[in-house]
Amino acid sequence: MARFILACETFAIVLLTSLLTNCTTARGQEKVRGNNNYPPLWDDVPDSLSGFITTHNKTVINPWNYLERMGMYKILLSVTAKYMSSFGPSNTGNALWGLPLQHGWQFITGRLADPSNVSSCGQEFGDPLCISTRSWWSCMNYYLATIPFLGAVEAGFFEDWPFEIKILPPEEHVDNFCYTAADCHVLNPEMMAKWTTFFQLLKKAKELRQINLLPIMSSEEDNIWQRLWIAHVASIETALPKFSDRLAYISAPEAQFGVSWANAVEFIAATHFPTNFNQTNTFQVFLPQRMLLAGDKAPSIPDLSKEQNRALVALDILQKGNKLTGGWLLKVWRRTMCSEKGRAEGRNLLENIVANPDLISSGIRNLLLEYFKNHNCTTIDT
Ligand SMILES: *[C@@H]1O[C@H](CO)[C@@H](O)[C@H](O)[C@H]1NC(C)=O
Ligand SMILES: *[C@@H]1O[C@H](CO)[C@@H](O)[C@H](O)[C@H]1NC(C)=O
Ligand SMILES: *[C@@H]1O[C@H](CO)[C@@H](O)[C@H](O)[C@H]1NC(C)=O
Predict the structure, then answer these.
(1) Which atom of ligand 1 is nearest to the CA of 56?
(2) Is 280 inside any structural domain?
(3) Long-range contacts from 113-122, C-beta under 8 angstroms, 24+ separation
(4) CA–CA distances in Å: residue 55 to residues 163, 166, 223, 255
(5) Protein residue whose Cα sits closest to atom 12 of ligand 2
(6) One domain, residues 76 and 45
(7) For a tag on the chain, would you pick the N or C end, based on fewer CB atoms within 10 A?
(8) pLDDT-based confidence at residue 47 (cuts at 50, 70, 90)
(9) 49 with 26, same domain?
C-alpha cells in the first residue's frame, strides 16, 4: 500500500513537472526588468498617526480610501524598521513590503474600483482614491491590511499614541469586517492571534543579527518570515470563503486568476519567501497589469508580456491541480518545504518558474529528493 501511494505521488509530481515545463517553455530570455518602484502616490501617503485626522480624542482611519489604507502599511513599515534593519539598507529588507506593494499593484491596475458599475468608487473620473466593498481584491486585501495593523496595535506598537485609534466601517457590508482587535478576536480568533503573535515576536527580536538572504536563511530570519506567512495564510483562508460572492462582479478569467493567485500564495508562503522591497517588485511585473476581460485566454493574451501569460498558465495549473487532488498537492509541497534546504530549493524554483523555465526540471528533481527526506516532518505552518 505504501509503495502504491509512493508511486502515485511520484507520478503526480512528474505529471505536474511536465505540465509546468511544457506550458512555460516558450524560450527567449527577455531581460527581466527589475522594477524598483514605491507604491503609487507613496509621497502622499501618511507615514505616522499624526497624518490622520484626530477628533474627540480619536484618531480616525478610513481603510476604504487608498491613501489611508496604504497609510496603515507605511506606518507599519516605519515602526517595525528598527527590528529589521539588518535585512537590508533603507528598510528595503523589511518583511512587510510585500503587502503594500501588492496593494499598490491592485490600485494601479484598477482592481480596487467598483467592478459592478453601480458607483463611481475607484473610477478615474469619479472618486479615484475610493476602495470599493464590491471589489473582491479590496475585500481580500482588508484582511491583509487592517487586520495586521490591528495586530500591531494589540502588540503595543502604538502605546505612546495618546488617542484611541478608530477604524471606520464601510457604508455597506459592515458585518463582513472587523474594526478593533477585540472585534477581530470574536470574528476569527485564530487569524487575529497569528497577526498579534507576529508583531509580538518582532518586538521581542530587538536587533536581528546580520543575515544572508539566499539561499539559506538564518534561523532568526526564517522565524520572522515563517510567522508572517502563517498570519498571511490565515488571513487568506478566512477571507476567501467570505468573499466568493464578489467574484460574480468580475469576468471569469479575472475571477479564476484571483482564486489561483490566492492558492499560489499558500505555496509561496510555505517557502518562507522573502517578499521584501526588491523581491516583490521583481516578481510583481509577472502579474497582469490590467484586469482580465471575458475573452482573455492565456498564454495568448496579446497585450500581456510573455512572462505574464506564462505566469497565468502556471497559476491556473497549480490551482486546478491542487483542487483536483483535494489539496494534496499543497500537502506534498508543505512537506517538501519542511526543511530549510527544501525551502531554499522551493524559493529557487519560484524565482525561475517564469523567467527561466529551463531550470524547472532540475529544480523539481531537487525538490523530490527533499520531499522523500522529509518523511518525519512536523511543521507549525499549517
Ligand atoms: C480629550 O482627552 C483629554 C484628556 O483625557 C480631556 O481633557 C478632553 O476633554 C478630551 N476631549 C474631548 C473632546 O473629549
Ligand atoms: C535592494 O536593491 C538595492 C539597489 O540595488 C540594494 O542597494 C539593496 O541592498 C537591496 N535590498 C535588499 C534587501 O536586498
Ligand atoms: C461599465 O461601464 C463601462 C463604460 O461606462 C462599460 O464599458 C463596461 O462594460 C461596464 N461594465 C459592466 C460590468 O457593466
Answers:
(1) 13
(2) no
(3) 115/249, 115/250, 115/291, 116/249
(4) 9, 10, 39, 40
(5) 88
(6) yes
(7) N
(8) very high
(9) no
Residue 185 lies in a domain: yes
Q: Are 337 and 343 in contact (CB under 8 A)?
A: yes
Together in a domain, 136 and 170: yes
- 42 lies in the same domain as 21: no
**17's grid cell:** 513537472
pLDDT at 71 over 90: yes
Q: Are 244 and 350 members of one domain?
A: no
Chosen domain end from 220, 250, 280: 250
Ligand 3 center to residue 101 CA distance, Å? 27
Number of domains in the chain: 2
Domain span including residue 345: 1-30+294-382
How many whole angstroms from 47 Cα to the centroid of ligand 1?
Answer: 25
Q: How far is the CA of 56 from the centre of ligand 1 (A)?
A: 7
Give pLDDT, residue 369: 80
> Which of the residue ranges 1-10, 13-22, 347-356 has the most confident prediction, judged by mean pLDDT?
347-356
Q: Which one of 33, 101, 277 would you pick to mutate in the ligand 2 pocket, going by the greatest count of ligand atoms within 8 A of its CB?
A: 277
* Ligand 2 atom showing the smallest separation from residue 276 Cα: 13
pLDDT band at 296 (very low <50, low <70, confident <90, very high): very high
List, chain by chain if needed, residues with CB within 6 Å of any ligand 1 atom: 56-57
CA-nearest residue for atom 1, ligand 2, is 278
Same domain, 22 and 46: no
Indicate which residue's Cα is closest to atom 7 of ligand 1: 57
Q: Where are the beta strands (DSSP E) in the chain?
A: 53-55, 58-61, 164-167
Q: Are 208 and 224 in contact (CB under 8 A)?
A: yes
Last residue of a domain, one of 250, 280, 314: 250
Cell 483542487 sits on residue? 323
Task: Check whether residue 97 and residue 186 sit in a common domain.
Answer: yes
Q: What is the pLDDT of residue 27?
A: 38
